[in-house]
Amino acid sequence: MFFRWRSGGSEVTTCACTPEWPELVSSLDGHPVRGVPSPGGSSPMVLMLGLVAVCGRCAARYRGGWAVAD
Ligand SMILES: [Zn+2]
Asked: Residue 21 and residue 12: Cα distance in Å, rounded?
């Protein structure tokens, strides 16, 4: 059997804030952008560019759908 123990690693995906995910931030062309949760799935722009959103306070990686707020 071949196990992949790399899943997870040091990457934090659980927000430590109260309430959770007070704000989402990402980076677009080197510029910080704000994100908003999108329960229906990430926006086409997010998917196309492969953007990653993190919590603006604890920097946990947001794994749900989201969209750029701007
Ligand atoms: Zn947080």
From this structure: 13
Give the amino acid at 16. Answer: A
**pTM, two decimal places:** 0.80
Collect residues with CB below 5 Å from ion ligand 1.
Answer: 15, 17, 55, 57-58
Instruction: Output the CA 54–ligand 1 centroid distance in Å.
Output: 8
Q: Which residue has the tokens 């946990």?
A: 60
pLDDT tens digits, residue range 32-56? 999 999 999 999 999 999 999 999 9
Alpha carbons within 13 angstroms on the beta-carbon side of residue 66 total: 24
